[in-house]
Structures are given as C-alpha cells and as structure tokens.
Amino acid sequence: MTVRRDLHQLSIHADARAMIERAREEGIETVWDRLAAQEPQCGYCSLGLSCRNCSMGPCRIDPFGEGPQKGVCGADADTIVARNLDRTIAAGASAHSDHGRDILEVFAWTAEGKTTGYELRDPDKLHALATEHDIALDGRPDKDIARDLASALMEDFGSRKDHVSFAERAPEKRAALWKKVGIMPRGIDRENVEMLHRTHMGVDNDYVNILLHGLRTSLSDGWGGSMIATELSDVMFGTPKPNMSQVNLGVLKKESVNIALHGHNPLLSDVIVQAAEDPELVALAKQKGADGINLVGLCCTGNELQMRKGIPMAGNHLMQELVLITGALDAMVVDYQCIMPAIVDVAKCFHTVVISTADKAKFPGASHISFDPRRGIEIGKEIVRKGIEAYENRNPDRVRIPGEPVKMMAGFSVEAILGALGGTPAPLVDAIAKGSIRGAVAVVGCNNPKVPQDYGHVTLTQRLIENDILVLVTGCAAVANGKAGQMVPEGAKLAGQGLGAVCQALSIPPVLHMGSCVDNARILVLAAALAKHLGVDIDQLPLAGAAPEWYSEKAVSIGAYVVASGIYTVLGVQPPIFGSKNVVGLLAGGLDDVVGASFAVEPDPEKAAVLIRRHIEEKRKALGLPFIEPSSIHPPGHAQAAE
Ligand code: BF8
Ligand code: SF4
Questions:
Q1: What is the pLDDT of residues 323-340, one digit of tens each?
Q2: Which of 34, 173, 297, 387 has its Cα between 20 and 30 A from that of 617?
C-alpha cells in the first residue's frame, strides 16, 4: 500500500492543492499517485548503471563492487553511465531541433505562399537574420529573402558544413575553444545521429570522448535547432515585447468556452488564437450560451503565447492534469512534448475533449485532428469548433475554479531587453560593474513530482533577487515565479536594494520572462552580447544557470549546452550518473579545465543559492569588480511569496 503525502509536500500553490484534494476525493489518479506506485524506483537505473543497448544484455553493474563490474560486452560503469547520459542529451537535443525544423519548414512554405494563417510579421528581424547570413536585401521582396534564409538554415541540419551558422554568434574565444576541444557542432542532425552511432555496442568506449560528443550534440541544440526555432518564430509570430498577463487556474472563466493549448510549437497555437477571434465562431459560442471563447496556455506553448500575445497561462508541467480537474475546461489541444498520456484518462472523468494534432504525437483515446500548416487557419477553426461543441456537455455543478489569477509580466526577448536599455548592453554592464546588479542567473526547466511543485524555482529565485542577482526565466520556471508574484514591476520590493532600484527605474520585474524552453537560446544570445561588449569569453562573466526541478531529456541537453557555453549550472534533481565516479568527476569539476564551467547538484534551493552566489562573487573578483563574501545562510525577512 502506498502512503499519500501531505498536500503541502506536493505543491506550494493553493490552486494545485485544491485540485489534488478534489482528485483524491473523487478517486482520480494523478502523477503523484503514479510516482508513489513506482517507488522504490530502480537503483541501478537511478545510478545510470543499467544498459540495454543490445540483446546480449540487458546488463547492470553492481555499485557495491560485489556483483558484475562489466556488461556482457565488457563495458564498464564509466562507459555505460556516459553512454546513457549522452543518449539522453541526444533525445533532448533532437526534440528541440525537430521542433526547430518544423518551424523552418513552415517558414519556407510561407515564403513560397503555400500556407494559410502565417505571415512574416517581423520584417526587421527577417532582414537582420538575412544580413547575418550574407543574404542580399537589395530591396527584394521579403518572401524572396525568407526563401534564401530558409535554404541557408536547412543546411544547418545536414553534414555539408563544419559549424552551424549561429555558432558565429558566440564570442570568438568561445568558438575557438569549441574548435580546439573538438566540440564545435557541425550539423544538427549529424551530431545526433553520430551520438546514436557512438553509443552502439563496440563504438565509443572512452567516457571522456563520449561526454565531449555529448557537449557537441547539446551545442547543436542550443546554438542550432533551438535558436532556429526561436528566431524564425519571432519572424513569423512577432518578436516578444513586454506585456502584462495573468497566471494560475483562476484564468479559466466559468461563463466562457475554455480551451487550453498545451505542448510546445507555436505553429498550432498561433492559428488557434486567430481562429478563436473568428466572428462566426464567437457567435457560435454565444449561441451555445457562453459569453465568448477563452484561450489559456499550458507549459511551453503557453509561454510562446504569453510572450507574444499576453494570453493567460493556466500552469506548468504538473498543472496539466489539475486543469482538467476544474471541470471547467472544454478542450485541451496538444501538439508535442511534455504531454502526459494520462491526460486522456483524467479528461474522461469530465466532459473535456482532448484533441491531438501532431501526426508524430498521437494519444490513444484523444480525438486526432491532423494539423497541416498549409491549411492552418481552416484546421484551427475546426479545432475551436470542437471546443465549443464540448462546452455544451459541460456540467456546471462539476465546475470548481480555485482562486483568482495573479498578474505577471512576460515578453523579454533580447531585443526587448536591449531596447529597454537604450539599444546596448552598456547600462546592464555598468550596473554589474558598480555592483547594483551582482550578476544574472537563468533559472529554467521543469516540474518534477519528486520535488514539491515550484518550491525549488520560487525559493532559489527569491534568494537570488534579494541578493541583487537578476533572474532570467524560461519554461516551467517562468510559470512558477509568475504565480509567486515575482514577475511584476512591483516585485522590485522583493529584490535587494541595488536590483530593486534598477527595476523601479526601468519599470521591470526582477525576474524576466524570456520564453519557452527553446527560448533558452535567447539567454545564450544575451550572454554572448554581454561577453562581446566586454571583450571577454562567456565563462568570465558573473552568470550561472539552474534547473531546480528538471525532469526532461530536453533539460539535460539545455544544461549541457549552457555548461559548454561557459556557464556554471546547478541541478536540483540528481541525474542518473552517480554510478561512475569518473563521469561525476568530469561533469562536476573536470569540465572547468575544458570549457570553463561545470555542473553541481544541490537539491536544497537554499544551499543552491549560496553555491551560485559564491560562484558569481568569484567571477566578479576575477574581473576586478567589488566583492561581497556570500553569507552561508539566507538573509531573513523575505516571506515566501507564494501561497
Ligand atoms: O520545454 S520546462 S516540463 S514544458 S521540458 Fe517540459 Fe520542462 Fe516544462 Fe517545456 Ni521545457
Ligand atoms: Fe550489455 Fe554491452 Fe549490450 Fe549494454 S551494450 S546491453 S553492456 S552487452
């Protein structure tokens, strides 16, 4: 029999706890129940010591040294752990990069006039990207320029180049280092395929060599597939600008047709936003008794919509089942990534229709409407119509929407940040030099049911901002901090005096929403801009990364490319590498001598904050900037913002 944990151990948020409680009352199974049913989870797998790469196995290495120390083929713990981690990186990098390719393909079709519902909405960005790729503008039509750009970026996926094009955005010293170490990403598909090759039985058995290729594969994501996804999404859907939005389950409206957009790719969600404004569909919703159509976001597709259009955000990863349990959601429209198969079962307890749309991501039990971007707007309307029809089946007595929404600001693209600073990183660099801002940290990544939902994100972020460290957020972290009230300009009062004053002067929050998980590429671009401005490499800057509640393979790829780009990164959930002391030694220290940065693992966000502050002060000292010895305990007085 499994023991049910107290609700406060599951989530720091009242809206989540209310819905988990309802699930318990009504016998609806959620992610926390399924985690409990899996415990204790496999110790070999948790340490990375099991291998099923071939059918001489599966094999496992005894971590206590008494049982087998080699697989049937002779692979030892170092090889097996490194191979497993690298396949995880490849899966994450592939997910991001395949998303990037989907965007690129639709971008190319749009340039050829073959789509409905898509435009080239940011010509300035199109022109800037074209110039970066030596594509002539010469007063040519935007569609011709876009066609040439699409063709240039498609080359980045193949094997005809010796570096992906956006790697040229890295500071010269960084790019030279990648070449010297042999980790310059050549082609996006190439690195991922080579990874699967290298980790086949009897290919790469040198854990150092395997892990270095892991870094190269991750760089093909960060400076390749993800960056392409972000940049072309900006051209097609608009480069984000700061806007005020809302967050939590309170964004659902009792009187409206509620449609949640869940997944990652803005190709689908953008046309649905257009379809939901169609006067005929709005009239149909009213005819059915609703006051209109209310779109809400979930996970990263929600981030994409919130960044560009201010669409309210219903929640992050662990909210995807709970939003259904409100009984107020009429349709959940999904594309791909981070969508639990379980949502179909939870939806069956209510009237909600789950609509899958990507032919590469089908969900048994969901209605599938195959999304073809060439008929984007027509299909978007068909999906919205289905949501309106489902509204008719809603039982008002089953509706429970917990609480009121919280305000949050989104839309901090690099262009928007530099724009707010007057078009140059100089004011930010000056603030860092003076010490009013001590550094910047990217707090990114997922929820994981092994961590009380959002506790890691909110606590770490709070400790950083109160110590005058600017926090940049993406993915599920952004939703967590938004719910906690840290992402409005008034959040300046939660920050230390230095950062607080800067935020007040610019009317910005101390925690800046930079987008979805592919948008971590924006953070790389910002870091490169700061480094270039100062004439240094990224690893010399007072920066750090953190993924306090990560769960996904994509997060592993992100962590790897952030470190390979020179940024120290702290993970809050233990990765499955502790079966090899050598692998741990390399990732948690040895890499400092290779790429100038490494990983740390620290589950306690209070301690993670101290590690990060210490790191930032060391970097400041090395640059000759004023130093403050970080205290080993957090400063008192700042209550936890979330409830
Ligand atoms: O790409 S942060 S749980 S939703 S993997 Fe997924 Fe993690 Fe959320 Fe977005 Ni990113
Ligand atoms: Fe076992 Fe080696 Fe096959 Fe892995 S590759 S399953 S360790 S024999």
A1: 999 999 999 999 999 999
A2: 173
